[in-house]
Write a structure and sequence with these properties.
4-stranded antiparallel beta sheet, 6-stranded mixed beta sheet, alpha/beta, elongated, 12 helices, 43% helix
Length: 398
């Protein structure tokens, strides 16, 4: 099954399998969109997607790898192993404004189509339902517990305002800050107080000043999560949450130290105590495996999608798919679902994620990934090139 003819036949078959399931996949996308769930709370999506795997006769495990809302589907008994990753968590207040309903169902569609031809093609597919991409690091936890063992290539597609080779990813780590001062009556005896909100505000201002002197491709942003209880009480407690981002994990470390010093200075100035907690998981930058990207681009062009360089319409962000890409050859292309001027993580983008362009992205994303997986299954040369270039890139990043 190594000839061009055989590959073409298999690609036609997986596309037909996806078309046969088009209504089901789009309905599932709409259902997930209508039931947004946050990190590790994606019970509706988990149950819906695994029920489809069951109805399709795909061997699967619910609540896989010790995570209640993770799952794994499996098909094939020999040959190269491709991992197709599904995300399905949403954002607070604005729901599926990152379009994870599309990621979930495009991944499901690709996985089902590959399962249907795995025996004939001599390949294997692992369909991974990965919760909590929006900060919870579900893929990192699953990888630590063995979800990526043996995978030759991992892939997913992410909705955006254009078809892009990759997302412009940067490493990220979350930071939680708690300030403690001394409560007092704000009118009767304010001098007895130590204002924790002042500490938080001063720390925020320090970080704002720091932003002038960090690299153009670094990012620091934060919010106040606690700011006092009543205006006439000097706030004893305040809290803030931060994202600290840099182009690579290596560059992230010194930036983290600078940000922490800014926040500590706010506490010192206000006479308050400060405690900090870095999130357990650091999100790595994405290493997009060039040979796999080229295969994906060629397959997308078969569908009439012209995939552009990320500089054409940059989408900057962080994802735990970056951690996956440090462990196995991976791709994370973007697929168009909205006009370019519409940013992800906005209510407007959420509406496009359920619109006609979003539905088309479910099917085209599934087909492009399935055909790329066929390339991996049938081309020993592609697998060797991907493994070699990926290993070289990981080594270069230290």
């Amino acid at each position: 099954m190594d000839t061009r003819t055989d590959s073409e036949v298999l690609k036609a078959k997986v596309c037909a399998e996806i078309d046969r399931r088009a209504t089901m996949l789009i309905d599932a996308s709409h259902e997930i969109h209508a039931h947004p769930e946050l990190n590790y709370e994606e019970h509706f999506a988990h149950d819906l997607l695994t029920s489809i795997l069951a109805s399709e006769g795909v061997d699967h495990e619910r609540s896989a790898y010790g995570l209640a809302t993770a799952f794994e589907g499996r098909a094939g008994s020999g040959g190269a192993l491709v991992g197709v990753l599904c995300e399905y968590d949403a954002l607070p207040e604005i729901g599926h404004a990152c379009g994870h309903n599309i990621i979930a169902t495009a991944g499901l569609g690709a996985g089902l189509a590959l399962a249907a031809v795995a025996g004939e093609a001599g390949g294997r597919v692992r369909i991974l339902g990965t919760p909590a991409e929006e900060g919870g690091g579900g893929k990192i936890v699953m990888a630590e517990r063995g979800a990526l063992v043996g995978i030759d290539a991992a892939m997913m597609v992410h909705p955006a305002g254009a078809d892009l080779l990759a997302m412009s990813t940067i490493a990220n780590q979350e930071l939680a800050i708690e300030y403690t001062g001394e409560a007092a009556h704000a009118a009767a005896a304010p001098w007895k107080g130590r204002n924790a909100l002042d500490a938080a505000v001063l720390g925020y201002i320090n970080v704002a000043a720091l932003r002038q002197h960090i690299l153009p491709n670094e990012r620091v942003h934060g919010i106040f999560t606690k700011a006092g209880d009543k205006p006439n009480i000097v706030p004893r407690e305040a809290a803030s949450a931060w994202y600290v981002r840099s182009p690579t994990v290596k560059q992230l470390q010194p930036l983290k130290e600078r940000v922490l010093r800014c926040l500590e200075a706010g506490a010192a100035a206000a006479g308050c105590e400060m405690q900090h907690q870095w999130a357990t998981h650091t999100y790595s930058e994405m290493i997009d495996c060039a040979p796999l990207v080229r295969a994906y681009v060629a397959n997308s062009e078969r569908l009439g999608r012209m995939v552009l360089d990320p500089s054409a319409s940059p989408v900057v962000g962080s994802t735990d798919m970056g951690n996956v890409s440090y462990l196995v050859p991976s791709i994370h292309p973007m697929i168009e679902v909205s006009p370019r001027h519409v940013s992800i993580h906005t209510p407007e983008f959420a509406s496009y994620a359920r619109g006609d362009a979003g539905d088309k992205a479910v099917l085209d994303g599934a087909k492009a990934m399935a055909m790329t997986a066929i390339d991996v299954w049938t081309s020993a040369e592609l697998r060797a090139d991907a493994a070699r270039e990926w290993a070289s890139e990981v080594s270069a990043r230290g």
